[in-house]
Amino acid sequence: MNPNKSNRYMPFLMALCIVIGIVIGTFYSNHFSGNRLSIINSSSNKLNNLLRIIDDQYVDPVDMDSLVEKAMPQILAELDPHSVYISAKDVQNTNDELKSSFSGIGVEFTIRQDTIHVQNVIKNGPAERAGVLAGDKIVSVDGKTFVGKQVTQEEAMHKLKGPKDTKVKIGVQRYGQKKIRYITITRGDIPQKSISATYMLNETTGYIKIKNFAENTYPELLISLAKLSQEGFDNLVIDLRDNTGGYLASAVQMANEFLPKNRLIVYTKGRKSPREDYRTDGRGSYQNIPLVVLINEGSASASEIFSGAMQDNDRATIIGRRSFGKGLVQQPIAFPDGSMIRLTIARYYTPSGRCIQKPYTTGDDKDYNQDLLTRYEHGEFFSQDSIKHKGPAYHTRIGRTVYGGGGITPDIFVPEDTLDMTSYYKQAAMSGLILQFAFTYTDENRIKLNNFKEMMELSDYLVKQNTVDKFASYADDHGLKRRNLMIQKSHKLLQTYIDSRIIYNILDEEAWNEYLNLKDPVIKKALYVFKNGSAFPKKYERKNYIKK
Q1: Residues 399 and 441 in one domain
Q2: In a domain? residue 509
Q3: Could you write out the DSSP letters of every residue in 194-230?
Q4: Which phi and psi (to 5°) does residue 140 adopt?
Q5: Which of 361, 386, 503, 505 gives 442 a disulfide partner, CB atoms 3.0 to 4.6 angstroms apart?
């Protein structure tokens, strides 16, 4: 062959070889990967193409950013109930919920009649130092009127929170004064406590109420335990009722404090996430103290991790009602625009192997969201025999039977107290009228009420003030017709609710918890367990663990 002719075809031959190589490589890549990458690319290209077509050819102008913002939650909703999209403007508030602090002015507020009412002023916070008082109404922010329909929880938080050391000027209207007072506040770090109450239930029993599992929960726990140690506690109640969870690490650290070395606390496992075990290191200082953990249908996620670890290791007696059943692990993934998703990547399992997550139908949250209502209607809140376990049986370290299928079933069931419940009480509570009355009463009697510094003193005073009758008159003026027979039947419930909110308004959250615990049947059951020396579980079969 002529060398010149051969050289002429060389570029063609090289190009042909490259193309053949690409084809073969693509074939084997798709063959051995199950064509997954191709599917993903194809799907994402399809979505991108759809958006481009809409933007380019749709009959009317379209806000593409808004369209994408609306589409993201819908896509994630097709996966599971807890994979969510968080817009950029909501990310900060979402993250702040579990932080040890945030930057703001330091007030607790409620919105009534389209106006911000300061409910409590955080001690030693920026607002207190600037002269803001509980009961003040905030009517302007930075020179602009802030009342009316524009006053929402979200908008109020947006205006009052802000970077540390920045200033905000608020106009406040104080009770009994017509003139608006203008106060400039320098924003600062506002501590957020996850433990809302630490005190002695009796001479030997300490009590700790944990609201959520935040980044500061474990250090707060150690401080609470040290405080109770100084008061000579021999038994401990940890109250996780209505604790919706939070950080896994905090729950693991807390469990480590009460369990011996090398005990399994929880493990996670997912399709792309290999099993990961979380075990104790044996350094806990309270491994032998008699322990009771309180849960209810509002206890979820990290609360269930802790209570499940205590139950499966036969370390504590669990008292209350079956927990929520949230056992999906979310991983936060941020986007360049500041938004983020929380994508479910695994499930939580208790030491015995129980999956904490209750059943759900992919892409259909209706039944899932109504689960608690379904439990209520089926009588689960009132009878342990109504608890329907849908999962297999498992066993604790000493052989006690527990069941999977969602949530943690307590060792001792305590029904919800509905003995004095009436339709009048339900309407009063659900309408928000009790909260409104409690704040109004507090505001009108603040000078007198501020003289009380102890919960019991204030409680005894309120009993003599006939707050139930005053509420009934207030409610009647605000659309809830007076029902004397129903009021009489629900008198104790009404008084407890009304007086507890007034105590909360004047004192603090710990005093509020302490007041509610005085007559709490769950607390009484916990004290009974300690009295009988039965906090450490023993092997036996419980009726509430009979599989239905």
Answers
A1: no
A2: yes
A3: SEEEEEESSSSEEEEEE--B-TTHHHHHHHHHHHHHH
A4: -150, 155
A5: 505
The answer as to whether 315 is a domain residue is yes
Q: Same structural domain for residues 181 and 321? A: no
Model pLDDT for residues 226-235, shown as the tens digit of each residue: 999 999 999 9
118 & 52 share domain: no
The number of distinct structural domains making up the chain is 4
Give the helix/strand (H/E) hosting 331.
strand 328-334
Q: Which structure tokens are listed for 246?
A: 């939070």
Contact (Cβ atoms closer than 8 angstroms) between residue 492 and residue 467: no
Active site residue 211: no
Q: How far apart are CA 29 and CA 283, in angstroms?
A: 50
326 is catalytic: yes
Counting as low any pLDDT under 70, the low residues of the chain are 1-44, 98-101, 540-548
Distance CA 481, CA 78 (A): 45
Query: Do 210 and 332 have their domain in common?
Result: yes
Is the domain of 238 the same as that of 258? yes
Contacts with 265 (C-beta within 8 Å, 6 or more apart), sequence order:
251, 252, 255, 256, 259, 278, 279, 280, 305, 309, 351
Catalytic, out of 159, 161, 211, 326: 326
With 0-12 / 13-18 / 19 or more C-beta atoms within 10 angstroms meaning exposed / middle / buried, residue 208 is: buried
- The DSSP call for residue 359 is P
Annotated catalytic residue: which of 80, 136, 239, 312? Answer: 312
Digit-coded pLDDT (tens) for 329-355? 999 999 998 899 999 999 999 999 999
Q: Is 312 a catalytic residue?
A: yes
Q: Which two tokens stand for residue 183?
A: 């106060």
232: left (phi over 0), alpha (psi -120 to 50) or beta: left
Catalytic residue among 250, 301, 339, 352: 301
| DSSP H/E element including 394 | strand 393-395
Phi, psi of 281, rounded to the nearest 5 degrees: -105, 0
Residues in the chain: 548
187 with 200, same domain?
A: no
List the domain range (segments joined by +) for residue 144.
Answer: 101-191
Q: Is residue 109 part of a domain?
A: yes
Q: Are residues 446 and 476 in the same domain?
A: yes
* Whether residues 253 and 374 fall in one domain: yes
CB atoms < 10 A from the CB of 478, how many?
12
